[in-house]
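Z., the sequence and structure:
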Amino acid sequence: MNIAHWYPTVTLVHQYLSWALLLAALFAMIRGYRGWILKKRWAAADTFAGTLLTILADLQLVAGILLYAALSPITRQAFTDFGAAMQNPGLRFYAVEHIAVMILAILFIHIGRSGSRKAQFKARKHKLAAIWFTLALALMATRIPWDRIFT
């Protein structure tokens, strides 16, 4: 079986997961701010929001790494001459910027999830979730290829 046949399918999964991930990040972030500002107790919905966000982020990471390392003709082209790719904004975006920032965003999601799980007090749980999930969402929004996501 030719691995190139997987490219359109994994790309489509990656695109759909991006929407689910953005919605989950927004949901988890709102739950964090709601609990923090309104001094709510930590609820099962807060745990669900963080867990869902983390699972979707990890699935998105797996799909992205598959594209990046094995399937994408864009990254394959970039790696044939990396120096030239750095001079091309489109190739540089996918070869370096997109993946680096998205990995950092996923790291922030994990920090927020872990911190909110380990914190002892409800205010701290919500504050950590709100801050880290906001940072992750902001990072993701800056490096989503918006021109391609609607195609």
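The chain has a mean pLDDT of 94. The helical segments are 7-38, 44-71, 73-80, 82-87, 89-118, 122-142, 146-149.

Let me know what you think.
H.
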